[in-house]
Amino acid sequence: MHRLLLASVMSLAIAVPVQARAEISLDVHLHAGTAPPPPPVVYREMPRTEMVPNTSVHVVIGDRHDYDYFRYGVYWYIYRGEHWYRARAYRGPFTVVEAKYVPRAIINVPSKWWRHHPHGGPPGQLKKMDARAARAHERDRDVPAKGKRGKR
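^ that's the sequence the OP posted. Answer follows.
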C-alpha cells in the first residue's frame, strides 16, 4: 500500500511542469522598541540642580553621569542613548517612557544645557540652521535665490 502511494506521489511530482513553480517572498521587519535598562542612579542626597532661565525645568549639574538628567514638576527624567526614563524620586526606580510623554518644556531646553540632545538641538533650531546652510550654499554656488532674477 505504501509503495502504491509513494509511486502515485512520485508520478504526480514528475507530471507537474517546472514552469508552474511559484515563489512568494515576504520580508518582515519588527521593531519592538525595547529600551535598555535605565542607567544606574546613585546619589546619597538629592543632586544639585540649576533651573533653566524662563522655564520650570531643573537640570542636574555635575560630571558624574553620561546622560541628561532633568526635574520637571514631580518627575525626574533621564535621556540616554535615544531613550527616556522617568521616576518620581531622584534615586528612581526609573522606567522607560515614550518620548511623546516627555514634557515639551524639557525638549525645548536650549542645547547648552544638554549633553546629548535627542535631535541635536531644540525643535525649530535645526530647521533654522538648515535654512541658513541652504542659503549659504546658494550664495557659494552663485545661483540666484527663488523669485529673484539677475539684472537685465
